[in-house]
Structure prediction request, 385 residues.
Amino acid sequence: MELSRIKDAFDRVAKKQKLSSSKSQDVVDQVGYQIEQALAAIQSPNDQSTPVYQKSVLTDLKFKLDAIRVLQQLEVSHKELNKSVTKYQNLLEKLLTPDISKAYRNVDFDTHLVNQIIANHFCHQGLFDLGDSIINEAGEPDATSLKSQFLEMHQIIEAMKVRNIQPALKWVSANGEKLVQIGSNLMLKIHKLQFVEVLQNGTRADALKYAQTYLAPFASINKDEFQKLMGCLLYARRLESSPYSDLMSPIHWEMTTEELVRQFCTLLGQSHRSALSVVCAAGTEGLPTLLKQADVMAGKKSELQAMKQLPVSVELSKEFQFHSVFVCPVSKDQGSEDNPPMLLPCLHVLCKQTIINLLKNSTRTFKCPYCPSEATVTHCRQLYF
Prediction:
């Protein structure tokens, strides 16, 4: 909701800025036109080009410029823009908290582990010089093996950018058995890219020979895909005007490169996104909730530092959910082996400890906090995620 308000306010300021710029340019154009007309009159070779005539032209120019009211028009336009900018600035100060340290909690970090994560992040991004600098300045052991593997990955990526599949094919061939074990069809996708390139830039015979050599082994298990590629042979050198024109889209190269990175990192035992980038992205997403909670607690004269557990849940998008979790809607405790989620007969779910607490006021039954139904412990069933 707050981001929506900020975006709407920004759009209004941007619209006002364009309007102000348009008005200012219009005024400048008017002034330029009058000056050009005056210069043309003064420089025209005729009998009237006398000092008296030139003076009259300049007097007339001054009269016309005064009629345009240059300063007044620019002043009004800029005042309206400044007013909008000031309102936007006030809204930002109201909705955004400039001091994010209020959401920070003192946590003991393993310095060695943090240094390795940062260095690994730079290697993951192909910034090997920065990674080496971090390792050297922190006095950490150099992960030469991992760095050389990431170097190979980025060499493949750079080659793919210029549509050179040879390094990618070499890596896929060397790791073919491992890729098959994880159900990857990366080799087919890479050969498919090259087949389209040959078909568009070479002859039909070249494309057919390539298909017989490299695509035929995949025909039995990828029948539909193989038939589609064979249909492309009818449109050699004019694929852009065929029913298969979508195969020429650069998005296929981008998606295949992205999948190659995923598979490469999987075989390395690494995530395709560095731990540092995941933490920063998740922290940025959860920061507004933490800042809001910090403001609420400040009003109650309590500190976030003193709490062992947050009183609110921090909702993150699905990309940050790496395993199934359950948080009790009553206690806000996360489900665990000692405190598992329990399904009530009314189909609501609570943690086991919450049910025990509800039973303190009753020896046999308890009432569901979310509906009028009553239940006993024997009627509850443990859920497994």
